[in-house]
Amino acid sequence: MDIRQLEYFVQAARLNSFSRAAESLYITQPTISKMIRNLETELGADLFYREGKSIRLTDAGELLLVKAQNIVESFASLSSELDSLRNLKRGHIRIGLPPMVGASFFPAVIGEFHRKYPEVTIRLHEDGAKKVEDDVESGLLDIGAIVLPVDQTRFHSFTFVEEKLELLVPAGHRLDGARQVPLKELAEEEFVLFREDFALHDRIISECVKAGFQPKVVYESSQWDLISRMVAAGMGIALLPETICRDIDRSQVTVIPLTEPVIPWQLGMIWRKDRYLSFAAREWIAFAMNVLGERYPPPEHPQDI
């Protein structure tokens, strides 16, 4: 048994698929199938039920997964620590960014970081904030930008944006020209929302329910510019962050302050409390704190990052 066998097994168990695991590990499916079959032979037990193209863990597989995850994570931590010692500021960082956050806040920051640390590579993963949080939790990502709040028992975090949501209506809408609009006034409107894997999806629905109504959702998207165009086309209304609203073409839509309640939009960077961070990831956090979070001072003790 070697660490590669355990890594392949853990990834197959996470994805419930040999083919998807092989793709994520950049190897062929026959390779991962053979490695896991060898592992089963060595252990004298089947680890997966094979049902056509799908797989699921046997009892022996469930038992091994608990142990294997700890071994793989410990080995990854050891490798990262040794790599940091050997290579100093060289390294690799996996960062998760929701699409609208990445486009609005990070190109310049990443460019400056690359100029300062040209030998550090950054792999960006674009997903909704909920998926980013899950991937930081599981270890697939080192760091993520999400919509706060977050579970402070599991994650370190710092805030870099505090804004509120604003109302977007098509030109000529009954609310066009209003100075401000209370949320309950939107009870009969049709909403264009972000998809379910975006934190704003649940936040907006929750606030509407608190205001006394269930929003009528007619369209969902992962792209803020498409949402604004749907509003301009008269498909419905939308609630978007101030930063996004500043970039919207106002010729066909109107942006109106939302009140009663004001819905906050707070962005932060998160990373796991109980997982080793490479030197490169620590450098990124300190750099991002300085560039993005000037209003939020870094920890007094950088070693606590």
UniProtKB/TrEMBL annotation:
Residue ranges of coiled coil: none
KW Kinase (keyword) present: no
Top-level taxon in the UniProt lineage: Bacteria
Domain spans labelled HTH lysR-type: 1-58
Keyword line: DNA-binding, Transcription, Transcription regulation
InterPro entries named among the record's database cross-references: HTH-type_LysR_regulators (IPR050950), LysR_HTH_N (IPR000847), LysR_subst-bd (IPR005119), WH-like_DNA-bd_sf (IPR036388), WH_DNA-bd_sf (IPR036390)
PROSITE patterns attached to this UniProt entry: HTH_LYSR (PS50931)
Entry similarity comment: Belongs to the LysR transcriptional regulatory family.
Protein name: CidABC operon transcriptional activator CidR
Species classification: Bacteria, Bacillati, Bacillota, Bacilli, Bacillales
